[in-house]
Design brief:
The complex is a heterodimer of chains A (668) and B (249). Chain A is built from 18 helices and 21 strands. Chain A is of the alpha/beta class and 668 residues long. Chain B has a five-stranded mixed β-sheet. Classes of the chains: A alpha/beta (668), B alpha+beta (249).
Chain lengths: 668, 249
């Protein structure tokens, strides 16, 4: 049984990173030119890592399955990126960002990693501005900030509702600059389908060229997985259609432990499900909770009348509305963390107060903000005794300037005007805090294999705070991995070029080929999509926002039988050596069908409620999560064994908290 | 709702393509256009016909991957939307819908509706960046104030998603709107001004080398752009280009 070594440096919390950086062995420029690094994925973590490593002098190959690195799903992040700049002078600091993140994660993350993240957060903003990222600014020309859930300061930098896009284009431009210099070889429309391990070390990958269908061998001294999260195991999520777990799962099967796989973030503000053929869900940024108020009717008969279309939400007077977040959590109100807001919405809808046809929606209402901003604007303009209509018009203009593109997106999808009637929202799968286990240097349990960004588990514990995913992706890629990779590569300088003719490459390629031929020669009748949809239903109903022992056990059995059915009945058209998206999808769904089982096992083993993981057996009388620090203050790291996810072995990395006190998380 | 779908089928870059006709039924109002194609594809698979290949990923209008030419318009009817944001409520029951790939010499077809837009990547590689290393050891982000108007204009240009609708729409298959959006974004910001001359010359040169046509000011690109990128950017790029050509050393 291998022991998990977190490699957390000695010293006080605030000094750990600085001291560690000073001690990391360097690789000389001449030696860097002899070292090859593979980066899989080109989102924020991947693009930034590939650019930074190339600048340092390593030979980099960057892979993405999309047609261009700029399409990676980081592009869809809306709200913003946190940094402890304290530009607003509202009491922010590195320690406060660290503390908010640890608390927000319900005390299930590593102190040292989170503190490092908070430390480098400020460099990210400097870096991005220097690259020409057009953040929102105030009239004085300085950067503007807004607030996000779970915090009481304004530390979120943003570019309207397209922050992820602007940051990714910044990282993509840095990457493009290195491609132009010949320092990075870009392999788009390529998907990693196997990790190659030689003598216990990660030495390369097998990738499928998605255009020609060929399997290619690529060797390297280190491989970085920057492949994002696995939310698509739920079928419906806010992830892109192509987001998948395959790269991480193949690494897992070759020895990389998966950590806390059950920690899933269900985002409270998404557009509700409308029909059976829906392929994905759309997020409405958390930033909307700065100005939107969430409510359902107070009386169950009003909710019923709304569902039946007999009354409209705007017909209900203020005193008939239940602003349940403001009622339950007066200190944070509508800006409670995501897990808390999602559960509260589910609680109201389960109790019969849902407001759309399916009964699974609540209102997000901007009318008070429109009035407030309108009155303010009238005052600034010197309009005396403005009419209600004037105020509304002015207020709508302010809201448009802040959230225009989100309101437009909502209207396009639902055909309803959110300026005039409240938005309808419901929680949806959005992010996975769990991921590949990594040590402080971001190295996995396979030497030479690293994991960055959402693909690793390291910084968000059991719940991620809003605007922290972008922060972590860029921190890992620009400022952490380029340093820490030296601890491993400095010992690898005499290895020399790695041959792709080694038997391990041969074997990995054959395995991938056999798997794909298996799908193509299967005599089934059912398209891949149908199995994915069925898996999603199991995961959402039994391993979603609320979980219990009985359901989880049933889910495990159901997933196992669905997996058998998949291999017996799946039908994949087309051929091996051609562009074949159905074949690619079959491989991805096969991996989701294994991951889903492990997620349920992890959820079953964690007999407590924390963050996004809510076990119905462990809740207070008021329905709040009950954590059990004595027994469960650890990271669960699962080792794949006996070629069966059901036989995975659990390893525990105990978490020690020296700088924060473990409290019951309260947002009241 | 039921539809007749005429869709371009082409097996590879060098093969001949043709329009195939299929029927789809049971489509609801709330489905997106791509979800309608999903339904069609599931149907084709069960009939042992290869599904229609098309590019798509985020399905929320931001990744720029989807690229269909629907009833003669890039991203179909409706303004300010990508194909994934187009909903079937925009069509009438019984309609015949014709779907083709984005067509341009610099966007060769890979298969069916999927085209190769790597020429856009190469235009960015020619200079669509600020040459700073990613060390993080840089001046404080607030050290250089930027006038809000300029910052907002730079942002508006920067929202280009690189989908290529402008090229597909343009009768000359010009990439001027795409290229000028990046040139504008960076030349409006103090950080980007330093290399502005070299940037515009290199990016325009690359654009020409890729085989994109020239701009004849019809303005069609602006109309079809899902992100509303303005042709003012083209004017700005022309100005920058002229200035840079005269002063280039």
């Amino acid at each position: 049984m291998s022991k998990l070594k977190s490699e957390i440096p000695e010293g006080s919390l605030a000094e750990k990173w600085t001291k560690h950086k000073a001690k990391i062995p360097l690789v000389s420029p001449a030696n860097k030119r002899q070292i090859d690094v593979i980066v899989v994925g080109t989102g924020l973590a991947g693009s930034s890592a590939a650019a930074s490593l190339a600048e340092l002098g390593y030979n980099v190959k960057a892979f993405c399955f999309q047609d261009s690195p700029r399409r990676a799903h980081s592009i869809a992040a809306q709200g913003g990126i946190n940094a402890a700049k304290n530009y607003q002078n509202d009491g922010d600091s590195v320690f406060r960002l660290f503390y908010d993140t640890i608390k927000g994660g319900d005390y299930r993350s590593r102190e040292a990693n989170v503190h490092r993240l908070a430390e480098v957060s400020t460099n990210i903003i400097d870096q991005c501005v220097a690259q020409g990222v057009p953040f929102a600014r105030e009239y004085g020309g300085l950067l503007d900030n807004r607030s996000f859930g779970g915090v009481q300061v304004s530390r979120t930098f943003y570019a309207k509702g397209q922050t992820g896009q602007q940051l990714l284009l910044g990282a993509y431009s840095a990457l493009s600059r290195q491609v132009a210099k010949g320092r990075v070889e870009l392999l788009s429309r390529h998907e990693m389908v196997e990790l190659v391990v030689v003598d216990g070390k990660s030495r390369g990958i097998i990738a499928r060229n998605l255009v020609t269908g060929e399997l290619e061998r690529h060797s390297a001294h280190a491989v970085l997985l920057c492949t994002g999260g696995y939310g698509n195991v739920f079928y419906l999520s806010t992830n892109a259609m192509g987001s998948n777990v395959t790269a991480a799962w193949k690494a897992h099967k070759k020895g990389a432990f998966m950590a806390n796989p059950c920690f899933t973030q269900i985002h409270p503000t998404c557009i509700p499900v409308s029909g059976d053929s829906q392929s994905k869900l759309t997020l409405m940024s958390e930033s909307l909770r700065n100005d939107g108020r969430i409510w359902v009717p107070k009386k169950i008969e009003d909710a019923k009348a709304i569902r039946e279309g007999k009354i409209k939400p705007t017909d209900l007077p203020e005193e008939e509305r239940d602003y349940y977040l403001e009622r339950r959590y007066p200190a944070f109100g509508n800006l409670v963390p995501r897990d808390v807001a999602s559960r509260a919405a589910k609680e109201r809808c389960d109790a019969g107060f849902g407001v759309n046809k399916t009964g699974e929606a609540v209102y997000l209402d901007f009318s008070s903000a429109i009035e407030r901003f309108g009155a303010e604007a009238a005052h600034v303009k010197g309009i005396q005794n403005p009419s209600d209509e004037d105020i509304k018009k002015l207020g709508e203009r302010v809201i448009e300037s802040k959230y225009g593109n989100l309101f437009q997106m909502y209207e396009k999808i639902t055909a309803q005007n959110p300026y005039k009637t409240p938005m309808m929202i419901y929680p949806a799968v959005h992010y996975t805090m769990g991921g590949v286990w990594v040590d402080y240097n971001l190295m996995t349990t396979v030497p030479g294999l690293f994991a960055l960004g959402e693909a690793n588990f390291s910084d968000h514990g059991a719940n991620r705070l809003g605007a922290s995913a972008l922060m972590q992706g860029l921190a890992d890629g620009y400022f952490v991995a380029p340093y820490t990779i030296g601890t491993y590569l400095s010992k690898d300088i005499i290895t020399g070029k790695i041959s792709t003719n080694l038997p391990e490459f041969e074997e990995a390629e054959n395995n991938a080929r056999k798997r794909m031929e298996g799908f193509l020669n299967n005599n089934g009748n059912t398209p891949v999509e149908s199995f994915h949809r069925d898996l999603g239903k199991i995961m959402w109903s039994q391993c979603g926002m609320a979980r219990n022992e009985k359901d989880l056990k049933k889910a495990i059995a159901d997933i196992r039988s669905l997996r058998d059915k998949f291999y017996a009945e799946v039908k994949v058209t087309g051929k091996m050596n051609e562009m074949n998206p159905e074949l690619d999808k079959a491989g991805r769904v096969a991996d989701f069908l294994e991951l889903g089982e492990l997620m349920c096992m992890d959820a079953l083993a964690r007999e407590e409620s924390c963050g996004g993981h809510f076990r119905e057996e462990y809740q207070s009388k008021e329905g709040e999560a009950v954590r059990k620090d004595g027994e469960f203050a650890f990271v669960s790291a699962w080792e794949f064994s006996e070629n069966d996810p059901g036989k995975s072995k659990l390893h525990k990395e105990e978490l020690s908290f020296e700088n924060v006190e473990l409290n019951t998380r309260s947002y009241k | 709702m039921n539809f007749t779908i005429n869709v371009w089928r082409q097996n590879g870059p060098k093969e001949k393509g043709k329009i195939a006709t299929y029927q789809v039924s049971g489509i609801s109002n709330d489905m997106s256009f791509l979800e309608m194609i999903d339904v069609l594809n599931e149907q084709l698979i069960t009939q042992n016909i290869n599904p229609v290949v098309f590019d798509h990923d985020c399905r929320e209008g931001i990744c720029g991957m989807c690229s269909m030419f629907i009833n003669g318009e890039a991203h179909g009817p409706g303004r300010g939307v990508t194909t994934c944001q187009l909903h079937m409520r925009e069509f009438k029951d019984g309609d015949t819908i014709t779907i083709e790939p984005f067509r341009a010499k610099a966007f060769p077809v890979i298969k069916d509706l999927m085209v190769d837009r790597s020429s856009f990547d190469r235009i960015i590689q020619a200079g669509g960046y600020v040459s700073v290393n990613t060390s993080g050891n840089l001046p404080d982000a607030n050290a250089t104030p930027i006038e809000k108007q300029d910052a907002d204009a730079a942002f508006d240009a920067a929202t280009c998603i690189g989908c290529g609708a402008c090229v597909a729409t343009c009768k000359n298959a010009s990439a001027m709107l795409f290229t000028s959006a990046k040139v504008s974004q960076l030349s409006l910001l103090p950080q980007g001004k330093i290399e502005a001359n070299e940037r515009v010359l290199n990016m325009v040169k690359q654009m020409d080398m890729e085989g994109f046509g020239n701009c004849t000011n019809t303005g069609a690109c602006e109309v079809e752009c899902p992100k509303g990128i303005s042709i003012e950017n083209i004017a700005r790029m022309n100005r920058e280009f002229l200035g840079a050509s005269i002063t280039s050393k």
